[in-house]
Every structure is written in structure tokens, then in C-alpha cells.
């Protein structure tokens, strides 16, 4: 049994540092790098790609809405044509840096509000899937299971990678709890590790609004902007490995 451990990274911009890339990269097996729209200036993207190469970490694109001020976490009602173009543009930006380092694009995973909109809006999901397919139909797309986003990724013929979030709370409907809700973040490393084990071994996790949610996890996400993200990543990885679960890229 194995699972991938991914982290959102490369989200610093110019003189502004964000996240814990240097501490997290040695602990995860894949990273989702910002592509300039919600974070990640050209110099910072280049640095993140070099850091990933140094640690042997698989690199995926993390395209978001064009919203630097809101860090890509504010919903935007873009047309499918705009979503398609924006996603393709961002993948291309990251790919240029990957190519100069002799690396390939491992996967694509949308960021923040774009990811959440894809989970509930079929046209957005379809636009993302078609953009990835146009770039390279062999590139996997990371999705939240049981959503229209998963359906559209499969419809496009892409390899689908199912994702779970041990440090984010779920609702009974299988969606992630809004960040505005108390308890939506699991900041205790031990609790995040416990949840990660349940997700992988039992395919279940407790819901914030009661009951349990079935989850399918081929990759587990650690948010790099979590204040104690390195501690959470370390606790999750140790717990997985101590349980005999191999941690490696999908």
C-alpha cells in the first residue's frame, strides 16, 4: 500500500515570502507550484522548481484565479473560455521552468477558489480538464472525489488522482468545510496524522457537522500556508510510514 503526500508551494511573490517551502520539500513526495496568478513570481517559481529538483520531489502545476490580492481564494465567475485560457497559460509558464531544469510536469491541481468552483460547477471543471488535455493528455489531474470535477476529468479521458485533506475538516456531503467555519482547520499535528491514517486505511473521516464521510485518497494534501505546516507534514509522514504505508509519488 502506498500514498502520495503533496503540498501547495512556490507561492511567494517578489519580496513577499509565503509558506514553508524549504522545510516542507524534504517531507513530501510531490508539490503543487503556483504559476503566477494567485502567487509565484517568475523568480520565485524558478527557485521552487530548483528546490524541488534538489529534493527529488515531483512537480505539478497549481493554477488559480487571477487574484494576487486575495491569494486566489475569492470566487470569480469567469467564463469557461477564460478558465481554459488561464489554466493553459499558467501550465505553460511553469513548464518553461521545468524544461530548463530537465524536469517533466507530473500533474495539475487547481488552487483555492478555482478548485472549489470546479467541484460544484461543471462548466468550470470541464474547462480545466480540457486545458490539461490540450497541453498533454497524459498529465494526471488531481481531484476531490465524488464531484462534478472528478466526472469531467474522467470524461476528458485524463488520469484522475483522488485527493484527501487530513488538515481540513469535511462536511457530511463530502465537501471541504468553508474556512470561515470554526474547526475547519486541523492544526494539531497528531490529530492530522490520525485523520490521515483513517483516510488511507479505513477510507473514512469524521465530518464537522456530524457523522462520517467516505474518502478515497491516492494523495494527501498539506497546505503550505498552514502556520505549522512542517510539523503537520512530519507527523503525517511518520504516522504513515510507521503503519507500513509507503509514501511515494503517484
From TrEMBL:
Pfam families: LamB_YcsF. Gene3D superfamilies: Glycoside hydrolase/deacetylase (3.20.20.370). Its EC number is 3.5.2.9. InterPro entries: Glyco_hydro/deAcase_b/a-brl, LamB/YcsF/PxpA-like. Forms a complex composed of PxpA, PxpB and PxpC. NCBIfam families: PRK05406.1-3, PRK05406.1-5. Catalyzes the cleavage of 5-oxoproline to form L-glutamate coupled to the hydrolysis of ATP to ADP and inorganic phosphate. PANTHER family: 5-OXOPROLINASE SUBUNIT A, UNCHARACTERIZED PROTEIN YBGL-RELATED. HAMAP family: PxpA (MF_00691). Belongs to the LamB/PxpA family. This is 5-oxoprolinase subunit A. The gene is pxpA.
Amino acid at each position: 500500500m502506498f500514498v502520495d503526500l503533496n503540498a501547495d508551494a512556490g507561492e511567494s511573490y517578489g519580496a513577499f515570502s509565503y509558506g514553508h517551502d524549504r522545510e516542507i520539500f524534504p517531507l513530501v513526495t510531490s508539490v503543487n507550484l503556483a504559476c503566477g496568478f494567485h502567487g509565484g513570481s517568475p523568480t520565485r517559481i524558478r527557485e521552487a522548481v530548483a528546490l524541488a529538483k534538489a529534493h527529488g520531489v515531483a512537480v505539478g502545476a497549481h493554477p488559480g484565479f487571477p487574484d494576487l490580492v486575495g491569494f486566489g481564494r475569492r470566487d470569480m465567475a469567469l467564463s469557461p473560455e477564460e478558465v481554459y485560457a488561464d489554466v493553459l497559460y499558467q501550465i505553460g509558464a511553469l513548464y518553461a521552468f521545468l524544461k530548463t531544469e530537465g524536469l517533466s510536469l507530473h500533474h495539475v491541481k487547481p488552487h483555492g477558489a478555482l478548485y472549489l468552483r470546479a467541484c460544484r460547477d461543471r462548466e468550470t471543471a470541464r474547462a480545466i480538464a480540457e486545458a490539461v488535455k490540450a497541453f498533454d493528455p497524459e498529465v494526471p489531474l488531481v481531484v476531490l472525489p465524488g464531484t462534478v470535477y472528478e466526472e469531467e476529468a474522467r470524461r476528458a479521458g485524463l488520469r484522475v488522482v483522488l485527493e484527501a485533506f487530513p488538515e481540513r475538516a469535511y462536511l457530511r456531503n463530502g465537501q471541504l468545510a468553508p474556512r470561515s467555519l470554526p474547526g475547519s482547520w486541523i492544526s494539531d499535528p497528531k490529530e492530522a496524522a490520525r485523520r490521515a491514517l483513517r483516510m488511507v486505511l479505513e477510507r473514512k473521516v469524521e465530518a464537522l457537522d456530524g457523522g462520517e464521510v467516505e474518502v478515497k485518497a491516492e494523495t494527501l494534501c498539506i497546505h503550505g500556508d498552514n502556520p505549522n505546516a512542517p510539523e503537520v507534514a512530519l507527523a503525517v509522514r511518520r504516522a504513515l510510514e510507521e503503519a507500513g504505508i509507503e509514501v511515494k509519488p503517484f
